Amino acid sequence: MERTLVLVKPNGVERGLVGEVVGRFERRGLRLRGMKMLVVDRALAERHYEEHVGKGFFADLVSFITSGPIVAMVVEGPSAVKVVRDMMGATDPVDAMPGTIRGDFALDIGENVVHGSDGVESAKREISLYFAPGELVSA
Q: Hey, what CATH topology would domain 2-135 get?
């Protein structure tokens, strides 16, 4: 079983899409092992996006993720990282297929509704940024 981090970004929360996103993962057979709403501060945002430091879009990433509440969740299941990323669709919603979260609900790469870890190791790192071990439900 794999675990991955999913964030419903500020625009997804503002638009009331949290239930839709959670429902899609649950209907697919994935399990929630942790979930909370929070406002990301600048320090957490910079740690989350540290691989993008120095890139032209880094400031926009930090600004957007700190602009309002998010919902962070740990999703678990077989090949969870790949399954979640496939369900989210391409990072740029213009390229995301209909039926994916971004394909159905986003138009702009900068405000693409959801984030999902891009690999097993990054999932471990990202989960530890948002959840203490005692906050997660065991299988």
A: Alpha-Beta Plaits (3.30.70)
